[in-house]
Amino acid sequence: MSKNFDVVVIGGGPGGYVAAIRAAQLGFSTACIDEWKNAKNGPAPGGTCTNVGCIPSKALLQSSEHFEHAGHAFADHGIEVKGLNLNLGQMLARKDTIVKQNNDGILYLFKKNKVTFFHGRGSFVKAGAEGYEIKVAGAAEDTITGKHIILATGSNPRALPDVPFDEKLILSNTGALAIDAVPKKLGVIGAGVIGLEMGSVWRRVGADVTVLEALPGFLSAVDEQISKEAFKLFVKQGLSINLGVKINTITPGKKDVTVEYTDDKGNAQKAVFDRLIVSIGRVPNTIGLNGEGVGLKLDERGFIAVDGDCKTNLPNVWAVGDVVRGPMLAHKAEEEGVAVAERIAGQHGHVNFNTIPWVIYTSPEIAWVGKTEQQLKAEGVAYKAGTFPFMANGRARALGDTSGMVKFLADAKSDEILGVHIVGPMASELISEAVVAMEFRASSEDIARICHAHPSLSEATKEAALAVDKRSLNY
């Protein structure tokens, strides 16, 4: 087998494996190196997203939502459930099965697209006339050469200073997905995506969940009207969300964790939790890459420095995904991976950061694309807004989930859609229409004039677009 490749991708997460497949489709001899291991030490490509992020969290969110519906919502549908019990072991096993299916699916795609896979940690050795020499440290050490290198090494969870993750009492996203017994009291530091999703999972199956957030506002990146609605709904569900908190000390014991903090009124507080999830963000992963050995430049925050085309300071070395600037989103990484492969082929790869959707998979879901109302105000942009509540949507009533709304923001003069924000059922699916519309620079009138199936949740999107011109039909 040849050890010389046109393209070598280091990292098999969403950005890396997609970049490798697209490069192979374009006719390049391509290798992908990934070190993730399954329980049997076999290859587990897919990165954080597949192994301890997007995929397993959605599996547990779905399972826990079914459990909550069975205990609280089925009766409204005339479905009586007696003797409801939680089999947490089966719930976790199902999650693990779904993860393995995705791992195996990626390996199959590599084989289908003739991508050579190496299981191990990839690192730079040196640059040479034929390209870059890359060491693969796995069960056996190997060395390969690539003319082009795509770095897709992802990110790691950020720990609190002097409070390392032990994944038993103090948990990152990895440990939060594998708690072997429902904790009576669960603490969550950080009210971001991971904190809210994991807090929701364990609350639904019986944990008393307290969320401690340092910022004074809730979900400050979200449109303020949407975040206020979401906060109200989460608190109603039973999540205790404390804002403006300053963490003072965290003391792990033998069976619990004590957190001393100052609340938003300046009062000293103390809480004891059976488990503590720390979800305060993620940091770029360049550990063991030996970038310094070939002069790879990092920025002041430790990300690999790239230009607008994802080129690093080294010739023919590219970087995508969480390890570079921009949102740490799996789909952003995928788009960059495809774009880089196409740029290597001399094509014009395209990534529009203004139309990357964001989703929080709580219940209700939160999804948005484009500018928030507070951003438009800060930028001095004249805009019109239209909202439509799901309580006025027939399909939402039939589903039994009428919480939340759809909100449109459009330019006051041109009517071009500037942002769409949703809190409510299936927001993650509904947001795609807004992404398409914004990518083609559609107006709110365009969406208002498109026929939407009845009854469907998507009608709320049409109605919100109509509301921009104050002519909603059903509210």
TrEMBL record:
Domain of life: Bacteria
Keyword ATP-binding among UniProt keywords: no
Protein localization: Cytoplasm
Catalysed reaction equations from the record: N(6)-[(R)-dihydrolipoyl]-L-lysyl-[protein] + NAD(+) = N(6)-[(R)-lipoyl]-L-lysyl-[protein] + NADH + H(+)
The Pyridine nucleotide-disulphide oxidoreductase dimerisation domain, residue ranges: 356-465
Cofactor note: Binds 1 FAD per subunit.
GO molecular function: dihydrolipoyl dehydrogenase (NADH) activity
Domain FAD/NAD(P)-binding: 5-337
InterPro entries found in the cross-reference section: Class-I_Pyr_Nuc-Dis_Oxidored, FAD/NAD-bd_sf, FAD/NAD-binding_dom, FAD/NAD-linked_Rdtase_dimer_sf, Lipoamide_DH, Pyr_nuc-diS_OxRdtase, Pyr_nucl-diS_OxRdtase_dimer
Membrane-traversing stretches: none
Major localization listed first in the record, in broad terms: cytoplasm
Class of this enzyme: oxidoreductase
Keyword Membrane: no
EC identifiers of the protein: 1.8.1.4
UniProt keywords, alphabetically: Cytoplasm, FAD, Flavoprotein, NAD, Oxidoreductase, Redox-active center
Record Pfam families: Pyr_redox_2, Pyr_redox_dim
Other notes: The active site is a redox-active disulfide bond.
NCBIfam families named among the record's database cross-references: lipoamide_DH
Similarity comment: Belongs to the class-I pyridine nucleotide-disulfide oxidoreductase family.
Protein name (record): Dihydrolipoyl dehydrogenase
Gene: lpdA
